[in-house]
Structures are given as structure tokens and as C-alpha cells.
Design a protein that fits this description.
single chain, alpha/beta, six-stranded mixed β-sheet, 8 helices, 6 strands, 52% helix
């Protein structure tokens, strides 16, 4: 058996792991008085959903997460165990957010990575203005690794070691 096969190249993130991460953010949001969060940036989307397909994740304190996907719906269904709400364009999310009474209180967004133009367009699109930066909450949450994440880091290191060993033989 090839040593990479022994390592296992990719383990999808389980629903339990994603919910643990989402609940961790909810706890931190509650402590900061933030009622809902909107996640748009690819790295954070992957961390909380397991997919990087075009869309957004909305996490409200008292509701299930809402994963809106605009493009590559088929791929997103392969990537994530979370329920998906298909949208034709990001404007379509507003109706669902209004119906679920999410657009109240204080919202949070990743203002360290979301471009200002995207942020301003998003606020106008959903008709909601009261947002604060939650980047530091996400970074704090991501700094503490779960057993799943530690295993993935060890596998990644083993894969890199394997690649360098093969490169040494070729060079």
C-alpha cells in the first residue's frame, strides 16, 4: 500500500465538527451582544461549512445556521453535511432572513477581509445597517484546535514529509 493511502489524503469535516464550531461562535457572539453573524469569506466559509462555493452562511443565536449557496450547488452538496438554501443571487437571501426575523439587533461580519464595497452593497441589499466586526471572534475560535483538526494537521505534515522524501530521490 502506498504511504499516502495509509495517511489518507482527505477527510471531510463531519456535521458534528461543523456544529461544534458554529456553537462555539454562537457562545462568543452571545457574550459580545451580537445577535447574528454573516460569513462570506472563503476560508471562514470552509471552516464553518466544509465548502467554499459562492454563497454565505448566516448564524443566528437562536436558530439553525442558514447556508445560502448561489453557485455550484451540486458541489456544495458534496462538500457539506449542512442543509443548503439555493439562491439565484445573493439578493434572494433577504426574504428568508426577513421571514425568520434574523435582521434585528446587532449583526457581525468579517470586516477584516470583506471589501468595503461588498460590505456596503450587502447592507443595502438586506436593508440592515448595524454590523460590527467579528473577525477577532473567529480568529480566537480557530486558534483552539479540536481533535479532528489536530489529526488533519498531522496528516498534512505526513503528506508534506512524503513529498519531500520523493523530491529528494528525484533531485
Amino acid at each position: 500500500m502506498d504511504s499516502l493511502q495509509e495517511i489518507g489524503a482527505f477527510d471531510p469535516v463531519s456535521k458534528e465538527e461543523l456544529i461544534r464550531r458554529i456553537n462555539g461562535l454562537k457562545t462568543m457572539m452571545a457574550e459580545e451582544g451580537i445577535d447574528f453573524a454573516v460569513i462570506m469569506q472563503n476560508v471562514d466559509m470552509f471552516y464553518f461549512t466544509g465548502t467554499t462555493q459562492k454563497g454565505m452562511l448566516v448564524i443566528a443565536l437562536d436558530q439553525e445556521p442558514l447556508l445560502f449557496i448561489e453557485k455550484s450547488l451540486t458541489r456544495a452538496r458534496l462538500d457539506t453535511p449542512l442543509d443548503i438554501i439555493p439562491i439565484g443571487r445573493d439578493k434572494d437571501a433577504r426574504k428568508t432572513l426577513e421571514e425568520k426575523n434574523i435582521l434585528m439587533g446587532k449583526g457581525g461580519m468579517e470586516l477584516d477581509v470583506v471589501p468595503v464595497a461588498v460590505f456596503e452593497r450587502f447592507k443595502k441589499m438586506i436593508g440592515f445597517e448595524n454590523f460590527v466586526d467579528i473577525s477577532w471572534l473567529i480568529k480566537e475560535l480557530r486558534a483552539i484546535k479540536s481533535p479532528f483538526e489536530l489529526t488533519q494537521m498531522k496528516k498534512s505534515g505526513a503528506i508534506v514529509s512524503h513529498v519531500f522524501a520523493l523530491a529528494g530521490e528525484v533531485i
